[in-house]
Write a structure and sequence with these properties.
Elements: H1 6-33, H2 39-58, H3 61-106
């Protein structure tokens, strides 16, 4: 087994933290960038719009209520996805700061 000095250990730890920060940043950015372009959202929105139109023409109020709750849950899911993306970006910046702190402690 090879031996690490304290500086080598801290430098290795800083590199791992930096790598994790980069991964968290790109995953968060990917989550934010592609939150609306998902095809599933578009399909569900189109079908619920058709349900609401059908409910208007046939005067079925229960169908209208279910379609509006479906649209509300889609909106909530989109907000949740955006929140997860922002959380990952904030975590990435915290990891960048920790890596910077570890490297400045060596020098």
């Amino acid at each position: 087994m090879f031996e690490l000095s304290a500086n080598d250990y801290v430098l290795t730890l800083a590199g791992v933290v930096l790598f994790l920060g980069v991964i968290a940043f790109f995953v968060g950015l990917f989550t934010l960038a592609f939150k609306i372009t998902s095809g599933d959202y578009a399909k569900i929105s189109n079908h619920s719009a058709k349900l609401m139109a059908k409910g208007l023409t046939d005067d079925v109020s229960d169908l209208m209520g279910n379609a509006s709750s479906l649209l509300e849950s889609l909106t909530q899911m989109s907000k949740t996805r955006a929140g997860v993306g922002m959380f990952l970006i904030i975590v990435a910046f915290v990891l960048f700061i920790v890596a910077y702190y570890l490297i400045t402690r060596i020098m």
